[in-house]
Amino acid sequence: MGAPKCSDAEFIELFQSLGSPGLVAAHLGLSDRNVHDRRRRIEASHGLLLKTTNDGRLRGAANPVREFEMRRRVEVPDGSVVVFSDAHYWPGDPSLAHIALCRVVRTVQPVGIIANGNILDGASISRYPPRGWKQPPTVAEEVAVLKERLIEVGGEARKAWLLRTLGNHCIRFEQKLAGLAPQYKGVTGTALEDHIPDWPCSWSVWINDTVVVKHRWAGGIHATYNNTLKSGKTIVTGHLHALNVRAFTDYNGTRWGVDTGTLADPDHDAFDYTEDNPKDWRSGFVVLTFRDGHLLWPELCYVDRGKAWFRGEAVA
Question: Among candidates 294, 261, 295, which has minimal Cα distance to 101?
């Protein structure tokens, strides 16, 4: 291994100045993974905390990550935005859809990536009891793997901004602490945002004021239709794990109700609570492509018969 591009002292000064792992990676010509790994090593060896104070991935604007926003707005005149949801990351090998996600991001080079809720499963802090003596992964184990997986995704598109919407499983992280130890409010590490500062969180992300990305709204088999019918917008949701696109046309033109499916394997142990019942779930994610600010027909990457398919090609 060659010598580092800068000393520890220079790295610390650069990180504190730029305030973002993404900007540090771009400045040094390194991958996000290398920056995050070195950041952790320096924090451990020097006994300090290198805090993210600027989301440089989102148009270079200053952004206190702990300040939760109800709605974030972004403009995408031309380019693609990749949206995935319900990863429910657990320790172990990544899902086929996750591998496909990294490869599609590398190929498409989107302007933005949105994790649309439930990257955390939170099985050990769920209100549901475990099955018998079977023990789910700990919170620490889940957080460690989701950080690694998000670095893998973000590292494939260094110029993309990264955003996250809040899912019902993600809420478990703070909800458990708030209920049992409210005195720890505001302490670093007690919010999921502290562990993944490169992915600022909000209830929704609005793209060009015509496309709304949020974790959930309507339920049932007609959710995508009802979402776009009642909102007057293209609505991109997760939560139901269904992975489909429903076009809707009226006097205003065509818009879509989109379900981003699940990035996890529907038969994974995380979903053991379904009691091996048939599930109308599909593994994959969505690519939104804009031309002159207008959304083209949303594209799905989906897992079928042991392969992940995108634009007619097996990508994983």
Answer: 261
